[in-house]
């Protein structure tokens, strides 16, 4: 049976066979990656869970405290610095508001005033008498500003960038869905073409071989992406807070590596069975 399967593969034009295999690898890789990206990096619930991990919490603490430092400067509450004025529970509460606004299923956003008001309410409720003196001074300063405090929050938290990120997320989500549909249709089309030239056993052999390649590529690629924060100082990338986003995403990429390993292992079994006598 091994000889039969191999002879059938050989009967298929060599160039066309390589084209099919490359197409299958590309399609499987892109579909898996796009689906995982949609369910993880674009999912507010998942990303808030990542932010609760030890490494994620450290990133969130630095990110939110940096914005709170800017808020302190605008209110003359303290000089510019890198002091951790907020606790982890306080930074998490503010980060959750930003994540819910940015990620998830929503249409294009044009206004961030409601977000600023929510952040303002969260600051006033989270910063209590047990907080640092500097944090209490900032809270009191915001209360004294009255309605104009909303615009101070918008400036300090760079909410124009947050709105831009939210709209980019919407655009990428739409593109992801369209690409997934197109890629699935392309996958079906390739299978139909292969069905005219190969037996089912040979098709399974080729598809699972592509799955093995996909799993191997995912492990290699996402390990490299997960290592970026260890090699480069990504925190220096201040545009749209990309540095912090890359740090958070690095832990997600490690989960992608696990998915790649699972795909590789699962594909190996039917690949071996389709080659057996």
From TrEMBL:
Keyword Membrane: yes
Transmembrane annotation, as ranges: 24-42, 171-192, 213-232, 252-273
Domain of life according to the entry: Bacteria
Keywords: Membrane, Transmembrane, Transmembrane helix
Name of the protein described by the UniProt record: Uncharacterized protein
